[in-house]
Write a structure and sequence with these properties.
This protein is mostly helical and 405 residues long. Helices cover 56% and strands 4% of the residues.
Length: 405
């Protein structure tokens, strides 16, 4: 039910209930469209029935345009929509296997369930074959794993891989779908040798096609990004967050978590790349202010579950980054109090006193400062004193002469 649950539109406790209702509805639509017939499904590959192609194209375009406009109007946050990660080899091999199975059996996984429910024996055998394949894959997973997890390309989107904008891709995809409706109908009529009189009796789909094309064209000229989102904080909320001192992490805490390699904290350096190259904290990511809301980093900020800690030379740049990210709805973000200057001041300029004059707590604190000083400095922070020269002891073997004592 995402992204409706995170937005509070659907109660999480009713998630499975709504999923059941949607599943029943989906099965009813498949049955009504004739998708329980293997002949109708296989007709796509033989050219005598393209209803499957037209239905899937219609569903894809309707969902795409609906989601895009709902996102633009602020009803849906697209960053909350799960994108399947792309493993190229498994996608190619799995697609080929499913394509062959589709041709031979006449079903895909979803339509086979629908057909089996109404008593189709061939669909039941199709499901049995799928279960055997699942068992075989699971049993020999170690053998198939290099293919299954090979060539990982991340959560790749089609328009990103093509290097075009989301608006342009939506327009092109809609245009391709409408052209596919026309040409598949022509192919279908020629294969089935449909009479001209029957063609004239068909209802006209010109108006719905024009409406889809118009919606896609309108979206093409809309701004690429909305100026607000459902998760964005109001100015009043942002002001309250800015007055909370807990958004700052002390140099002591950050130093300790760096030294202990705490993976629950991610440091984000908002300085310019040339400054970052000269020196940066261990494990930090460089996201300059002007790159903070580029697509790659925008998704990273919203989806990451770790504590994100912004820092610069001081607090100014980090405050700007924190305010912008917080206003956009990013959670679990902090600022390194005083930035690099304050951290270095703490590590390298904290006075070191004679341990005999310190109590137990002060002694512990000072030892940590010395460890941090050694950790952050390139090489060894404390130069080793030359070892005291050791006397050279040479063993001389004395050979006794003949006679004597």
């Amino acid at each position: 039910m995402a992204p409706f649950i995170p937005e509070g539109l659907v109660n999480p406790q009713l998630n499975l209930f709504f999923a059941l209702i949607l599943g029943i509805g989906f099965g009813y639509v498949l049955e009504s469209a004739g998708f329980s017939s293997s002949r109708k499904l296989a007709g796509v590959f033989y050219g005598y029935d393209f209803v499957v192609l037209r239905v899937f194209f219609t569903a894809g375009i309707t969902a795409m345009i609906g989601m895009l406009f709902l996102s633009y109007l602020g009803f849906i946050d697209m960053s909350l929509v799960y994108i399947n990660p792309l493993y190229l080899w498994s996608a190619l091999v799995g697609g080929a296997i499913m394509g062959v199975g589709f041709i031979l059996g006449g079903y895909c996984p979803g339509t086979s369930i629908v057909a089996a429910v109404i008593g189709k024996i061939d669909a039941m055998l199709f499901i049995l074959g799928a279960l055997i394949g699942i068992f075989f894959f699971g049993h020999f997973y170690d053998t198939f794993e290099p293919i299954y997890s090979g060539k990982f390309l991340g959560n790749l989107l089609a328009y990103d891989s093509l290097g075009i904008s989301r608006n342009l891709f939506a327009f092109i995809f809609t245009l391709v779908a409408l052209l596919a409706f026309v040409f598949t109908q022509i192919i279908e009529d020629r294969v089935n040798k449909v009479e001209p009189d029957i063609k004239k009796q068909r209802p006209s789909y010109v108006l719905p096609a024009l409406l889809l094309f118009l919606l896609a064209a309108i979206y093409l000229f809309l701004p690429g990004e909305r100026h607000s989102s459902p998760g964005e904080l109001s100015s009043r909320q942002l002001l309250a967050e800015m007055q909370n001192p807990e958004r700052f992490l002390s140099p002591q805490e950050v130093s300790f978590r760096i030294m202990t390699r705490d993976k629950s904290m991610i440091l984000i350096d908002v300085r310019e790349p040339e400054d970052f190259q000269q020196y940066s904290l261990p494990g930090a990511l460089n996201i300059p202010l002007n790159s903070l809301f580029e697509r790659t980093w925008r998704n990273f900020l919203k989806e990451n579950q770790a504590q994100l800690v912004f820092y610069g030379f001081g607090n100014s740049a980090a405050e700007l980054a924190w305010s912008a990210a917080k206003r956009a709805g990013t959670k679990n973000i902090y600022i390194l109090d005083g930035g690099l200057n304050n951290l270095f001041e703490y590590v390298f300029n904290t006075p070191i006193k004679d341990e005999r004059s310190l109590n137990c707590e002060e002694n512990f604190y000072q030892r940590f400062v010395l460890e941090a000083r050694d950790y952050f400095k390139e090489g060894n922070a404390i130069e080793k004193a030359p070892e005291r020269p050791q006397p050279v002891i040479q063993t001389v073997e004395i050979v006794g002469g003949a006679g004597g004592c």
